[in-house]
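Sequence and structure are no longer studied apart. As an example, we show below a sequence and the tokens encoding its fold:
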Amino acid sequence: MKIALFCGGTSKEREVSFNSCKNIYNKLKENDVILVDSGRAEKFQNFKSQMQKAPKKWNINLVKNLINILKNESIEFVLLMLHGGYGEDGHIQSLLDMCNIPYNGSKMGPSYVGMNKIITKYIMHYYNIPTPNSFFLQKTSKYDTKSVVDKLKFPLIVKPASEGSTIGVKIVKNKKELNKTIDFSFNFDHEIVIEEYVKGDEMTLTVMNNKTYPFVKIIPETGFYDYERKYEDGGSKYICPAKIDSNIADLIKKQALKLYKKMNLTGVVRFDFLYNKNNHKHYFLEVNTLPGMTNHSLVPMAFEADNINQTELIKKIINNGIKK
């Protein structure tokens, strides 16, 4: 089977995408695989030199070149290792759907919904799934921070609605910091989420084909689990499988499976949540429809704890994408 491994992309998670791709590329040796930088619509072989290239802006020529690669190389399956906008948010998925080429992960609609934290939060509220109190702002709309302060209690988390890897995320401790932080987050997205900071262990639950895999607990060396703590060596420690009160664990699994089903998600999905072991309360934060596969990523840890190594995991991901 001829596989195109899509990575790079045009988002601010371009480097993360390359690292995910590089980590799994050698595990695909038994397949006929080509590397494609979707952010430049070009094939490549050398990760180091490709990572130094800047992405191009999406336009008709970029799309045309990408389609020509798929056509000329007779690609039968696309393995998406893209993160962020125009990779994880349904754009690439819709293009591949129109080309009738199968790929891993969720379809176009669920991908868009899962990438947007605002829509995801509305769905969580609808199904009575706990998530921190929040306030949404749009860059094009007039807003008054007083309305935010009246509804939410400090400290607050301010984050772009459709970015991943905690890009553009900051903790705000008082009203004075709020305006400056809002302006900062608007540099990354035209919509932002402001939510109450909830104390608790940062944890994840992975789901694939309506089956849950072991919990992962994240212990940042300092501060909170930001970009550096995620991807720098020694930035965080991890416990997998992580222990949670059995009744709460069952409830979290049930709620994650409900979201997986109701959002029409497919393939490997990672749910991020906070768990306070003192009062046994938990809060869902977001959904990741194309979770990272780097050396520091959480999904491979969960599968390893279930005796599935990364080579086997990639096979499962590809087979699942073909069948969906």
User: Anything to note?
Assistant: The two ends are 17 Å apart (CA to CA). The CA atoms of residues 9 and 74 lie 21 Å apart. Residues 133-196 form a domain with the Dna Ligase; domain 1 fold (CATH 3.30.1490.20). The chain has three domains: 2-103, 133-196, 199-323.
